[in-house]
């Protein structure tokens, strides 16, 4: 390529001395001259020691010799110089030769020493430098079109540019600069950016004026080069005049460049500021920068209602740029304050001003007082108004989150001002923060901030604030803690006041809590107990202040009196007493109470032994009495003959007067153990005998078939309750004594710790054994278990006079009791029969988290009623099935410890929760428990803990999205933040993988049981020998497999895990594949060891290997592995989005691995869909596998590179091969073994839904392009082709209903057909705009879609005639869509004056087979004589009367 350029007259030597690249014909008569010139050049180089003809050897061993030789030779012979340049120009015409002379080499040295290229040495020869520079620049355009991923050693263009960097001298800088700028103007964008950024290294400090002018011109043509231009400006040594010029250039770009480049520009301008131009820079930035404030309050409210909040990372980047610039240049802060002080008009103040003041306040501690004074002055003068603050806060939650303390501090300062306007503005800031930050943590911070900082200022307002006490009923329990804390702080502050408010606040608060504590309703009693304990907590902290008591009591005396009143009011009712003990335990753990209070608590818990324990002699009972005809035995005595005590469960459970004590036993023991730890430096040595003591329970002989039948209903009830209390006793033992080994307290010796670990493992074995017995017993004789743990958010209003637990009663009697009780509080509540029926149908499913929350009162009372009735109905049906099984066979039913405890899980919410530190048991060595070498015998214990971990993860996964992630009161287990939860379980991650590997290994072995090992382990733990108690190894292993993968998926997608790189790394590192290095290398990118990207690859590879193994074992396990893999890739995508604002390098690496990971998911899903599943690994065939197949298919389609093409292939080619009425064999032509008659409906539904999603995406793209100035024709054609594909899919799917007689298929066709028409109508504006240019394609769209609308019309008619309710409920909406479609087509053709003629008439009544039906009149539908949806006929022939033969003209 030849560049036309003018010779610059300012060159240092005559232009005649330069031999141009293309010589005139008279100079170059033949190609032989070029060959001769090349040979001449080679000989000249050889004389200087450069062996150019030796391809394998070094080019130039002695660089200095070569340069000296060339300089002296060319100085003495100008002809040799011309021939040398001519030969060099011919030589570099070959790409290989050019690459050789510009590439660096080590010269064959064994030491890797990088030498300069030959061209580099030639450029250091003054007489030929300019000529060589021009040759190279003119060769540059030939190598523009190279792949961007080409390495540097092969990228000729970049190597050429590198030759010009850091030259010792430039012979003619003006000529070289002009030539370089000419080439730069036509360079590709990426190369242009690299050259611009390298200009200071190439040109140096010469000819800066030309460089600045050229770069300014390039900026005007393309603003995307702003970043390298600014970088070049920063590195050039500019004089004062040019420095002012580049600042002017930068200021002119503020409104022109993209927002993503704005941080670089602002940082450049601010760091380039000098005393002479700083005010101009600040003023221009304030005037031209369009920063936060686009959204208005109304728009923000709408976004809140939708639950969506868009966070602009670009705005956060701008703030970071401003903050870093202010940090490095203090002069900026002073000048900004001067600039703002000069502004007097409110309209001159902008949103950026508030952010600038905030940044200065954050960076400069010495200027904070000045900032606050400026704020106050501006607010009083009306310059800073509320609308500016609203634009800063509203809709910018995550942007404001980092500067939340500043807004709190500013509000505190304004509220302390004397001026009313300033105080009102401070209140407005609090209001906006409260409205914007809906999470509990932030709102609690606001409330606590007010209560702690301004308690005394709130005292004069107490008469107004006290009104809150009248509305406590509407607060949640968590909010009650905050409200009571506010009033307690006010009461303490009022104690030093001399006004009339001194006693009113305390008296009002005491009156409220006393009244609530003595209320018979559980809801109000709980409110009172929270108030009492909050008062006790504040009194414990209020060392320097005394309570404003009218009786002049001390803080400890006042607290003791309140505690005694509360305890006395709870003694007659068990549930409030449980709640009181739990709240007091929590208070004891987080507060240091006065000695008098601690002494009172110690005396109270000292009664534990006399109430619940009995003495033993040589490990045996002193007397063997019967209780209600039941014989008792000692179970699970871990201390053997030396055990001095046992727990009296059976005697207390059988006593009508003392059975209530067992209900509060776990809570009472929790208080006792906490008191022991607090008073004994964390040790439980004073009560360690309780860990190994025996349990007095009914004799094991009653659990045989004969023994169980011999029992009365009352005895069966006592046995069930005894087992239930034993289970919860052991759960509390684990909660208490796991603190001794979980690292929470370092107060035990190693020997003691080893003994505790051994007993804890045995107690866990006891727990699994007892729960399996309890589940079996409840299945045989359903019992409504008493509640032992009152959840914090329990909102069901139950009168405490109701019996504490319900025995074996008839369903009608139970329902009547519940409804009568509930009607006292809600007279207008109605129980929906549909809800009861729907819940009853789900009796056999495992309860979800929302079922638990419904039980906990998290949902409204009406839903609680429905749930309770449905559970009671399921209990009765389980009872009937149990009786039926008993009547059929006298054989004992095996008790499998691995079975899902459906009967028990329905009442799991009543159990005492396991605390998080109990999961530390998962890390214990197997050798602590027994000598069993079979890991399958130990898996049931760990499965029990995995189930509980699953529930806790569910809570943080689902409820954590609605509440604050930093302050969540866990309904199920404890008040704990997500960060605290993660810090407690992160040490478990390696143990989880070990359990997964163990389960997988056991599943490979087959169905052999490990009954003997389990019996040995069970006997070592003190479990009685029950013959029909068995362990099913495959069942346990399968559940462990699923629980571990499910937990791994949930943890990966927790928001708090993704933002905590340390926890995320630990989690991923625990699930690494052995083949990680090979897998990482396959991505074509080197990742550092331990990098998040590398860990993600390793974890995904591990899950893939698990999936491959599971394919040979079970369809369910393989699908679970796929879902885990998909969840891991989803986590990668979320982390990738967060990395966009943090690290460009991380973003680049994630962008490289994401496509490969998505392809792995697609490949795995495709593998599962086509795998040859047999009866052994299908578990009951394809029955109940529809939901799993549906999810796998959706993953396969969504992760495909071309979803639309795949959907078209499946719907139009593969699906028609399937006969929905027959089962398909292994030799099906389509290859998808999961596509058969049993799975036809899931496939059918997914294809409809995915196709609809594709259309909706197309519609959004079309609407987004409407705002653009012009749409490219190829884009229009692409959109029309995409719409045609979706129409073809819909037509194919809808028409399949003609050959399929399933009502469900017809219902899906009507439903999704109507939805498709609705979405298609949204694109009609686009079709109208482009109809003239693409009329044939659009008419084809409508005519093709007409095939589906006719079928839908027929389906609607037949459904109405045969009264198919599954379809008729969807007909009205679909009919409306069809009518809208009809008239939009008519309007389209009329408005565009198309040559197509449109007729509208009534369809002939045909059935799905195409046969004409004689009448449309049905006996039961006389009003539908005329069809509601006449169709449109479109025909290109104007003389035709109708478009098709099945139409009547009208």
Automatic annotation (TrEMBL):
Keywords recorded for this protein, A-Z: Isopeptide bond, Nucleus, Ubl conjugation
UniProt GO molecular function: DNA polymerase binding
Protein name: Fanconi anemia group D2 protein
Native species: Rubroshorea leprosula
Similarity comment: family membership: Belongs to the Fanconi anemia protein FANCD2 family.
Comp. bias regions, Acidic residues: 1429-1439
Subcellular location: Nucleus
Gene Ontology CC annotations of this record: condensed chromosome; nucleus
Domain of life from the UniProt record: Eukaryota
First-listed, main subcellular location of the protein, grouped into a coarse class: nucleus
Annotated stretches, region: Disordered: 1429-1450
UniProt GO BP: double-strand break repair involved in meiotic recombination; homologous chromosome pairing at meiosis; interstrand cross-link repair; mitotic intra-S DNA damage checkpoint signaling
């Amino acid at each position: 390529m030849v560049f036309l350029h003018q010779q610059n007259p300012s060159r240092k030597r005559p232009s005649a001395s330069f031999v141009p690249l293309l010589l005139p014909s008279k100079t170059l008569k033949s190609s032989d001259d070029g060959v001769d010139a090349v040979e001449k050049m080679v000989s000249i180089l050889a004389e200087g020691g450069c062996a150019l003809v030796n391809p394998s050897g070094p080019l130039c061993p002695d660089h200095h010799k070569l340069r000296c030789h060339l300089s002296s030779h060319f100085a003495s012979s100008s002809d040799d110089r011309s021939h040398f340049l001519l030969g060099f120009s011919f030589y570099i015409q070959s790409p290989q030769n050019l690459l050789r002379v510009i590439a660096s080499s080590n010269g064959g040295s064994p030491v890797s020493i990088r030498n300069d290229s030959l061209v580099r040495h030639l450029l250091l020869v003054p007489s030929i430098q300019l000529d060589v520079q021009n040759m190279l620049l003119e060769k540059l355009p030939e190598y523009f079109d190279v792949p961007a991923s080409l390495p540097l050693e092969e990228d000729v263009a970049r190597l050429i540019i590198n030759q010009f960097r850091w030259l010792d001298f430039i012979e003619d800088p003006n000529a070289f600069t002009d030539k370089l700028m000419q080439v730069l103007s036509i360079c590709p964008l990426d190369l242009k950016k690299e050259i611009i950024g390298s200009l200071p290294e190439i040109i140096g400090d010469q000819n800066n004026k030309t460089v600045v002018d050229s770069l300014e011109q390039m900026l005007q043509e393309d603003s995307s080069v702003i970043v390298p231009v600014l970088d070049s400006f920063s590195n050039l040594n500019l004089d004062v005049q040019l420095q002012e010029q580049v600042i002017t250039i930068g200021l002119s770009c503020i409104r022109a460049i993209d927002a993503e480049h704005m941080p670089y520009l602002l940082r450049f301008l601010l760091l380039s500021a000098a005393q002479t131009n700083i005010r101009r820079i600040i003023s221009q930035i304030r005037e031209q920068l369009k920063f936060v404030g686009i959204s208005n309050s109304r728009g923000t409210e709408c976004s809140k209602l939708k639950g969506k909040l868009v966070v602009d990372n670009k705005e956060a980047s701008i703030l970071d740029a401003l903050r870093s610039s202010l940090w490095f240049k203090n002069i900026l802060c002073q000048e900004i304050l001067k600039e703002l002080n000069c502004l007097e008009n409110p309209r001159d103040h902008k949103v950026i001003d508030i952010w600038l003041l905030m940044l200065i306040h954050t960076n400069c501690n010495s200027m904070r007082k000045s900032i606050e004074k400026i704020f106050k002055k501006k607010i009083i003068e009306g310059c800073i108004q509320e609308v500016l603050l609203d634009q800063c806060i509203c809709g910018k939650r995550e942007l404001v989150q980092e500067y939340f303390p500043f807004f709190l501090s500013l509000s505190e300062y304004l509220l302390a001002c004397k001026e009313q306007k300033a105080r009102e503005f401070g209140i407005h800031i609090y209001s906006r923060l409260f409205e914007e930050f809906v999470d509990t943590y932030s709102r609690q911070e606001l409330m606590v901030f007010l209560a702690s900082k301004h308690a005394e200022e709130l005292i004069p307002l107490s008469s107004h604030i006290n009104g809150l006490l009248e509305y406590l009923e509407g607060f949640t329990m968590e909010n009650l803690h905050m409200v009571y804390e506010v009033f307690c702080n006010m009461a303490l502050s009022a104690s030093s006041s001399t006004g009339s408010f001194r006693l009113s606040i305390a008296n009002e608060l005491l009156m409220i809590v006393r009244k609530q504590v003595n209320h018979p309703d559980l809801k109000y009693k709980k409110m009172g107990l929270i108030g009492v304990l909050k008062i006790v907590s504040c009194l414990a902290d209020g060392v320097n202040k005394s309570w404003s008591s009218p009786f002049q009591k001390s803080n400890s005396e006042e607290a003791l009196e309140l505690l005694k009143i509360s305890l006395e009011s709870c003694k007659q009712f068990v549930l409030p007493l449980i709640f009181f003990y739990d709240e007091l335990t929590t208070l004891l753990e987080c507060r240091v109470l006065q000695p008098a209070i601690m002494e009172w608590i110690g005396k109270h818990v000292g009664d534990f032994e006399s109430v619940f324990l009995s003495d033993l002699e040589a490990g045996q009972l002193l007397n063997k009495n019967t209780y209600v005809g039941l014989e008792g035995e000692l179970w699970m005595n871990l201390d053997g003959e030396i055990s001095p005590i046992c727990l009296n469960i059976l005697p207390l459970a059988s006593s009508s007067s003392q059975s209530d004590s067992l209900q509060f036993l776990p809570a009472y023991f929790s208080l006792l153990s906490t008191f022991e730890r607090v008073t004994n430096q964390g040790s439980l040595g004073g009560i360690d005998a309780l860990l190994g003591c025996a349990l007095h329970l009914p004799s094991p002989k009653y659990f045989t078939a004969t023994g169980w039948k011999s029992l009365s209903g009352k005895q069966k009830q006592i046995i069930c309750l005894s087992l239930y209390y034993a289970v919860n006793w052991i759960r509390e033992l684990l909660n208490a004594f796991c603190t001794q080994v979980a690292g929470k307290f370092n107060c035990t010796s190693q020997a003691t710790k080893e003994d505790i670990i051994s007993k804890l493992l045995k107690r866990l074995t006891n727990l699994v054994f007892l729960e399996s017995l309890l589940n079996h017993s409840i299945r045989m004789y359903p019992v409504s278990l008493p509640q032992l743990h009152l959840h914090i958010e329990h909102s069901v209003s139950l009168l405490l006079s109701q019996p504490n637990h319900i025995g074996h009663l008839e369903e009608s009697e139970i329902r009547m009791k519940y409804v009568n009780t509930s009607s006292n509080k809600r007279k207008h509540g109605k129980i929906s029969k549909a809800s009861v029926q729907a819940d009853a149908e789900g009796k056999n499913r495992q309860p979800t988290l929302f079922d638990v929350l419904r039980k906990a009162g998290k949902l409204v009372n009406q839903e609680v009623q429905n749930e309770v009735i449905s559970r009671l109905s399921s209990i009765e049906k389980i009872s009937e099935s149990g009786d039926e099984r008993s009547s059929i066979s006298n054989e004992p039913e095996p008790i499998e410890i691995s079975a899902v405890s459906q009967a028990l899980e329905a009442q799991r919410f009543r159990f005492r929760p396991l605390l998080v530190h109990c999961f530390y048991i998962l890390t214990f060595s197997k050798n602590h428990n027994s000598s069993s070498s079979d890991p399958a015998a130990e898996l049931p214990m760990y499965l029990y803990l995995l189930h509980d971990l699953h529930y806790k993860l569910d809570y943080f996964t689902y409820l954590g999205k609605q509440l604050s992630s930093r302050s969540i009161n866990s309904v199920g287990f404890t008040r704990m933040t997500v960060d605290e939860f993660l810090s407690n379980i992160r040490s478990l991650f390696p143990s989880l993988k070990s359990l997964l590997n163990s389960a997988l290994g056991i599943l490979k072995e087959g169905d052999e049981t490990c009954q003997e090992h389990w019996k040995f382990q069970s006997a070592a733990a003190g479990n009685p020998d029950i013959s029909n108690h068995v362990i099913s190894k495959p069942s346990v292993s399968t559940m462990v497999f699923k629980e571990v993968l499910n937990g791994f998926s949930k943890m990966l997608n927790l928001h708090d895990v993704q933002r905590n790189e340390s926890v995320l790394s630990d989690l991923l590192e625990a699930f690494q594949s052995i083949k990680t290095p090979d897998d990482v290398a396959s991505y074509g990118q080197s990742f550092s060891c331990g990098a998040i990207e590398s860990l993600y690859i390793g974890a995904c590879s591990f899950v893939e290997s698990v999936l491959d193994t599971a394919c040979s074992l079970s369809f369910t396990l393989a699908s679970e592995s796929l879902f885990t893999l998909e969840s891991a890739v989803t986590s990668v995508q979320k982390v990738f989005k967060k990395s966009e604002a943090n690290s460009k390098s991380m973003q680049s690496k994630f962008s490289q691995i994401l496509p490969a990971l998505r392809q792995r998911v697609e490949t795995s899903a495709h593998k599962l869909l086509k795998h040859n599943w047999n009866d052994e690994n299908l578990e009951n065939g394809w029955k109940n596998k529809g939901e799993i197949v549906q999810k796998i298919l959706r993953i396969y389609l969504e992760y495909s590179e071309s979803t639309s093409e795949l959907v078209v292939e499946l719907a139009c080619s593969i699906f028609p091969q399937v006969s929905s009425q027959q089962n398909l064999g292994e030799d099906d032509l389509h290859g998808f073994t999961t596509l058969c008659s049993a799975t036809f409906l899931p496939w059918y539904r997914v294809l409809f839904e995915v196709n609809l999603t594709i259309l909706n995406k197309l519609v959004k793209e079309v609407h987004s392009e409407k705002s653009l100035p012009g749409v490219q024709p190829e884009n229009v054609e692409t959109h029309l082709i995409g719409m045609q594909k979706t129409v073809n899919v819909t037509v194919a799917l809808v028409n399949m209903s003609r050959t399929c007689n399933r009502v469900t298929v017809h219902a899906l066709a009507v439903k999704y057909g109507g939805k498709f028409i609705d979405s298609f109508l949204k694109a009609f504006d686009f079709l109208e705009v482009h109809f003239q240019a693409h009329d044939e394609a659009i008419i084809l769209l409508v005519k093709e879609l007409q095939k589906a609308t006719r079928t839908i019309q027929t389906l609607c008619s037949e459904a109405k005639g045969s009264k198919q309710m599954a379809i008729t409920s969807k007909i009205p909406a679909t009919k409306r869509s069809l009518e809208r479609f009809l008239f939009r087509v008519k309007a389209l053709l009329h408005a565009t004056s198309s040559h197509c003629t449109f007729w509208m008439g009534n369809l002939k009544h045909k059935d799905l087979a195409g046969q004409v039906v004689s009448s449309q009149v049905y006996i039961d539908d006389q009003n539908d004589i005329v069809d509601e949806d006449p169709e449109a006929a479109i025909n290109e022939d104007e003389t035709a009367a109708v478009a098709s033969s099945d139409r009547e003209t009208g």
